[in-house]
Design brief:
Cofactor: heme
InterPro entries: Cyt_P450, Cyt_P450_CS, Cyt_P450_E_grp-I, Cyt_P450_sf, Plant_Cytochrome_P450_Monoox
Distance between the termini: 22 Å
Number of helices: 15
Keywords: Heme, Iron, Metal-binding, Monooxygenase, Oxidoreductase
CATH topology: Cytochrome p450
Bound molecules: protoporphyrin IX containing FE
CATH class: Mainly Alpha
Shape: globular
GO molecular function: heme binding; iron ion binding; monooxygenase activity; oxidoreductase activity, acting on paired donors, with incorporation or reduction of molecular oxygen
Pfam families: p450 (PF00067)
CATH superfamily: Cytochrome P450
Length: 408
């Protein structure tokens, strides 16, 4: 589901990285410096918001499937969304520290009013998300009045033909639509409050994690050009140069898969998983853990432990070649956690990261900004393991892909 949205957004990312179309038509293919952190953040947010609400808040796209056709109104909405997100990120760093340090917590919460700010921001977020819900509700009511159920459902968007017979854009099912249709049958369970919660969790858990993984992976590839070359060779052999990578190719690209898994081993986006709680008394590594204890699993330490991994600080995708896709190597490798509270977005994340990285490797040549300096791999602070220095890189269209790229 939603594979067209993901393909469309990845294409649009490649177009922006290439620069103006005329530069390709003119055979101009100098390297240019690009900001990869914001590229990946915008990609994941656009994908997520289009799946959730049919909205695209970064980069203009006149074709978006959207009720608000007026650009000023849409620009205003996009600005509000970006501002809320920026404030939420800024505050979550401050309050995370406060959660673990009693003094800072007291100072932050009561002296600087961080708690008040959190409440104010939550109200703003709720208001924004409620507006999205109302817009989709109005649209669903309108389309159920004006069309047959088959036309208005439109759930499977793997259909390439976006136009209905009148040439008008056909509305596609969004996640909010699915939740609203469940609400009709079970209103006490699928309340608006609950739907706002789902939207919030999808944005907070599903965007930075995938974007961060892509940024670490590209950083590793820039520091290991032989690995990048090997991935390019695999894609050329399996996909060719007449079309771009699509999601159904990913199964035929085991080396690309190994690159992603190796990145997640070295730089897991959830290094401490979510806090878990022991439902029964148990013993772990000789320690008695009473029932009801909060447990933080240091998956980063496990995945980088020299007793478990050969040369853990070396980027070696080859260590996963031939390993069954999805294998967790026992519990040595758990970038998505495990069990009932394991990450429900694993499948989506692997598709988005695979498609984006595969396309970047297939369509563009890559270099470090300073040839002599390796990309700085220092980890920054924050629970999702961000890079300390946002990644900048140099890219240009691949010579043997110019034909295809000029048609994107
Ligand atoms: C590379 C990308 C991602 C990584 C590395 C990642 C990692 C994780 C980890 C480690 C957890 C905690 C699991 C545990 O404690 O056992 C988690 C939870 C979660 N993830 Fe992801 N995630 C990613 C992408 C996504 C995406 C794309 C979505 C949504 C579409 C998502 C939604 C969630 C949710 C809702 C939870 C909470 C599950 C619960 O508490 O029951 N994640 N993720």
């Amino acid at each position: 589901m939603f594979s067209n949205i993901r393909a469309d957004e990845v294409r649009s990312m490649i177009r922006r990285l290439i620069g103006s179309r005329s530069s390709i038509d003119g055979g101009y293919y100098e390297y240019r410096t690009v900001d990869m952190k914001s590229t990946f953040t915008e990609l994941t947010l656009n994908i997520m918001m289009r799946m959730i609400a049919g909205k695209r808040y970064y980069g203009r796209d006149d074709d978006q499937l959207e009720e608000v056709r007026d650009h000023d109104e849409l620009d205003h909405e996009a600005r509000r969304f970006r501002e809320i997100l920026k404030d939420t990120m800024a505050l979550s760093v401050a309050t995370n520290i406060g959660d673990f340090n009693g003094v800072l917590r007291w100072v932050g919460y009561y002296f600087f009013g961080a708690e008040k700010e959190m409440v104010r921001l939550k109200e703003k977020r709720d208001e924004f998300m409620q507006e999205l819900i109302e817009q989709r509700r109005r649209l669903l009511t309108k389309s159920s009045r004006s069309s047959s159920p088959e036309e208005s459902s439109g759930g499977d968007d793997d259909d390439d033909d976006d136009d209905d017979q009148g040439g008008r854009k056909r509305e596609k099912m969004t996640m909010i639509d699915v939740l609203l249709s469940l609400q009709r049958n079970e209103p006490d369970c699928y309340t608006d409050h609950m739907i706002r919660g789902v939207i919030g969790v999808l944005i907070s858990a599903g965007t930075d994690t995938s974007a961060g993984t892509m940024e670490w992976a590209m950083s590793l590839l820039l520091n290991n050009p032989d690995v990048l070359k090997k991935a390019q060779t695999e894609i050329d052999a399996q996909v060719g140069r007449d079309r771009t990578v699509n999601e159904s190719d990913l199964i035929k690209l085991p080396y690309l898969h190994a690159i992603i898994i190796e990145t997640l081993r070295m730089y897991p986006a959830g290094p401490l998983l979510s806090p878990h709680e022991s439902s029964e008394e148990c013993t772990i590594g000789g320690f008695r853990i009473p029932r009801g204890t909060m447990l933080l699993v240091n998956v980063w330490a496990i995945q980088n432990d020299p007793e478990l991994w050969d040369e853990p600080s070396k980027f070696k995708p080859e260590r996963f070649e031939g390993v069954e896709g999805g294998s967790r190597e026992g519990f040595k490798l758990m970038p998505f956690g495990s069990g009932r509270r394991g990450c429900p977005g694993e499948g989506l994340a692997m598709r988005v990261v695979g498609l984006a990285l595969g396309s970047l490797i297939q369509c563009l040549d890559w270099e470090r900004v300073n040839w002599d300096d390796m990309v700085d791999m220092t980890e920054g602070s924050g629970l999702a393991l961000p890079k300390a220095q946002p990644l900048e890189a140099m890219c240009r269209p691949r010579l043997n892909m110019l034909n295809l790229l000029s048609q994107l």
